[in-house]
Structures are given as C-alpha cells and as structure tokens.
C-alpha cells in the first residue's frame, strides 16, 4: 500500500491519548494540533531549498531557504478543519482551501456541498487533511475534485486510517501518497474504524 505510517514515539503516544473515551474536546483538539505539527515535519521533508546570502551579527554566510514552493492546505469539512491550525503553525504562508463532503448514512457515498480553492491551483502542492480515512470515499472524491480543478501535486494527511480506505485511495489515485499516524484493523458494519477513536468531528467540536 502507498501509505506512510509515522511511528515517532511522540506521535504514537499522543494518538493513544486521543483514542481514550475520557479525553475531552479541549484536550482532543490540542493533541490533534500537536500531532499535525509533528506529521507536518515529515510531510514537508522533501521541499526544495535554495542558497541565500545572510548577514549574521558576525559575518556573511550562505544559508538555505525554501525555494518558492507554493503549498495549499485543503481540509475536508468538517473534521479536517481540526488539522489546519497545526499545519499553519508550521507553514504560515500556505493558502487554505475548503472542500465540503458528507457521507450518506445509507449508501456511505460522499456527497459534495462546498468547494473553495486558491486561484493558482496548478502551481501548488496540496495537502488534503482529514483525521479519519475510513471507507476512503470522501478522501478519494476530494482528490478527484482537486484534480478536476487543475491540481497536479496532492498528498493526503490523516490521523487514523483503515486498510479499506487506504486501498480505495490507492486504487483511484495511485499518484497520491498517504501519511497517517496509525493504520488500524478494519471497518465495522457501520463504516467506522476499529479500534479508531470515535467520530473525530464530534470529538473536535463537542457535538453528538
């Protein structure tokens, strides 16, 4: 499978805290921010660099800076919003688009209801964020929509994934690399990840 599972001890520790039913919304949001920031370091590892002259307080030197790479963050509403803050802490100049999808409770198929993206789509590398990769339908539909709008480079960033969801995204979008903090066992009969962490949107926003 084209999926990178991030096994850093801090990430694994924080994911375990998020799984607990005793973790409230405030701590859940904070942990999600922290994990997103940690994952962001790995996802941006291959950003191109260029040389730049720098005057330090003592001497002139040649340093490194990111070579003008344009990034975009696209959360899948609503739960994906919980990962935006951590990414913007890391990359404050990134543009943020939004894709609104919900999963039909009967068919489990994604239904689009909103899309707002930066104008220079073809020039950007997009990181699609969604805490849960369950059936893979919403993530795959969001990636398809981005491609239809002109996106050329896309990565998918999730907190917890089921093998079924990874398989769907891999099949429909083999060019998209998936980054996850945990690859769980399976989906239950209702399309929820096991062992998972419940409904991420409800736990982020304190709704039921």
TrEMBL record:
Pathway linked to the protein: Pyrimidine metabolism; UMP biosynthesis via salvage pathway; UMP from uracil: step 1/1
Residues that hold 5-phospho-alpha-D-ribose 1-diphosphate according to the record: 78, 103, 130-138, 199
InterPro entries in the cross-refs: PRTase-like, PRTase_dom, Upp_B, UPRT, UPRTase/APRTase
Example GO biological process: uracil salvage
Annotated Phosphoribosyltransferase domain residues: 5-207
Highest taxon of source: Bacteria
Residues at which uracil binds: 193, 198-200
Record GO cellular component, one term: cytoplasm
Record-linked SUPFAM superfamilies: PRTase-like
Reaction(s) catalysed by this chain's protein: UMP + diphosphate = 5-phospho-alpha-D-ribose 1-diphosphate + uracil
UniProt-listed Enzyme Commission number(s): 2.4.2.9
Keywords, in A-Z order: Allosteric enzyme, Glycosyltransferase, GTP-binding, Magnesium, Nucleotide-binding, Transferase
Top-tier EC class: transferase
Regulation: Allosterically activated by GTP.
Free-text remark on how the cofactor is bound: Binds 1 Mg(2+) ion per subunit. The magnesium is bound as Mg-PRPP.
An example molecular function term from Gene Ontology annotations: GTP binding
Functional summary from the UniProt entry: Catalyzes the conversion of uracil and 5-phospho-alpha-D-ribose 1-diphosphate (PRPP) to UMP and diphosphate.
Family per record: Belongs to the UPRTase family.
Protein name (database record): Uracil phosphoribosyltransferase
Species assigned in the record: Veillonella montpellierensis DNF00314
């Amino acid at each position: 499978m084209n999926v990178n599972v991030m096994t850093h001890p801090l990430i694994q520790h924080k994911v375990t805290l998020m799984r607990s039913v005793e973790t409230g919304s405030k701590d859940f949001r904070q942990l999600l921010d922290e994990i997103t920031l940690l994952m962001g370091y790995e996802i941006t590892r291959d950003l191109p660099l260029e040389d730049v002259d720098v005057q330090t307080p003592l001497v002139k030197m040649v340093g490194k800076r990111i070579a003008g790479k344009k990034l975009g963050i696209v959360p899948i509403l609503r739960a994906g919003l919980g990962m935006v803050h951590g990414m913007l802490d890391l990359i404050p100049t990134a543009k943020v688009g939004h894709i609104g999808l919900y999963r039909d409770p009967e068919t489990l198929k994604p239904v689009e209801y909103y899309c707002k993206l930066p104008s220079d789509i073809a020039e950007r590398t997009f990181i699609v964020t969604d805490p849960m990769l369950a059936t893979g339908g919403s993530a795959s539909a969001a990636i398809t929509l981005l491609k239809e709008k002109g996106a050329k480079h896309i990565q998918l960033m999730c907190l917890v994934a089921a093998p079924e969801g990874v398989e769907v995204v891999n099949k429909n979008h083999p060019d998209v690399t998936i980054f996850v903090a945990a690859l769980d066992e399976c989906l239950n009969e209702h399309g929820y990840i096991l062992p998972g962490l419940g409904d991420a949107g409800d736990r982020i926003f304190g709704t039921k």
